[in-house]
Write a structure and sequence with these properties.
By secondary structure, this protein is of the alpha+beta class. The protein has a single domain, classed as Glutaredoxin (3-Layer(aba) Sandwich), CATH 3.40.30. Helix content is 26%, strand content 14%. The chain is globular, with a radius of gyration of 17 Å. About 15% of the residues have low confidence.
């Protein structure tokens, strides 16, 4: 065994017990539901740190408290995050527009962002 995995064969890194390479949609190892992002109203970018996971929970709470039935998705894939031009997470996206990035968003702040964009439940 090499120090800090030096000397390990490349094919061994990132493989599971069966030897097959693990495919993932997120740097943290989670599948983040990136399949149909264009139809989603509420997106939280960043999934691997406490601030990002807390922001995701707060945005979900805000969406529910305002009476929306829309799903909130959490994207942690760096390539997908970069498509939004975001360099710091967590970030909050409403209807494809980044409204906040680089800081924890509270439930109250998320409600303010949603109300600022004057979203209606039928939109």
């Amino acid at each position: 065994m090499g120090l800090f995995n030096f000397g390990k064969k490349k094919e061994e890194q990132g493989a599971n017990d069966s030897g097959k390479k693990i495919e993932t949609g997120c740097a943290c190892g989670n599948k983040c539901g990136i399949s149909d992002v264009k139809t989603v109203k509420f997106i939280v970018l960043g999934a691997c740190c406490k601030k990002s996971s807390d922001t995701f929970i707060n945005v979900k709470n805000a969406v529910a408290e305002l009476g929306f039935e829309d799903e909130v998705i959490n994207i942690g894939d760096f390539i997908e995050i970069a498509k939004y031009g975001v360099m710091q997470t967590p970030a909050f996206v409403i209807n494809g527009k980044v409204v906040s990035y680089g800081k924890l968003i509270t439930t109250e702040e998320a409600k303010e962002f949603i109300e600022k964009f004057e979203l209606t439940k039928g939109e």
